[in-house]
Write a structure and sequence with these properties.
The protein is of the alpha/beta class. The protein contains 6 helices and 8 strands; from the N terminus they run βαβααβαβββαββα. α1 crosses α6. The longest helix is centred in the last third of the chain and has 26 residues.
């Protein structure tokens, strides 16, 4: 089987380092034989998570679009920036809304169920967004996904990429290869277990 992996960054800022990290992940996952869908959360605008809004109007259509897309993939790779030692509100809001999706019309829809997830981080500082990645892992554990152990944390992101968007540092290239290889292998295994 060819594992289908959904890749996105937690920032939609033009030139965001998390976006560049997601792009690097997309390339490495493709090299490892995955079918990759790279999206921007800018294409899925929706309001802040609000249970009153959900009760009155239901799940926003863009949340449903993203949930259907997530459900159609075997795994995800999420690249987060670090905002004040945590994940950005855009990413948290996205993950929270997706956790509310249970049905699509008359049929069940579970965007997280059976998913294997890899996480990456980036920051301009030397700590590479490690606080953010720890918080992201904590949030995703509540979503009951299978989170792989290898991760890619990009320090001093303003100088980490060359003109082609590749990592200059060989250590980071090895980290991303380990993330992509493990994600593909674990996704294949998890998908086979789900089918059996």
């Amino acid at each position: 089987m060819v594992p289908k992996i959904l890749v996105f960054a937690g920032s939609i800022r033009s030139g965001a380092w998390s976006g560049k990290t997601a792009d690097a992940a997309q390339k490495e996952l493709a090299l490892q034989g995955a079918g990759v869908t790279r999206i921007s959360l800018a294409d899925y605008p929706f309001p802040l998570m609000d249970e009153d809004l959900e009760k009155d109007k239901g799940i926003p259509e863009n949340v449903m679009r993203l949930a259907r897309l997530a459900a159609a993939h075997h795994g995800m790779l999420i690249s987060t920036p670090e905002y004040n030692s945590s994940i950005p509100p855009l990413l948290k809001n996205t993950l929270d809304w997706l956790s509310r999706v249970r049905r699509d019309g008359g049929r069940p829809l579970r965007p997280y169920e059976g998913k294997t997830v890899a996480i990456c981080s980036s920051s301009d500082g030397g700590f590479a967004g490690r606080d953010a990645i720890a918080h992201l892992r904590q949030v995703l554990m509540k979503c009951r996904v299978e989170i792989i152990t290898p991760q890619c944390c990009v320090p001093r992101a303003h100088e980490a990429f060359d003109e082609e968007g590749q990592f200059k540092d060989e250590r980071l290239r090895h980290q991303m290869t380990a993330v992509a290889t493990t994600l593909v292998e674990r996704t294949k295994l998890f998908a086979r277990l789900e089918e059996s």
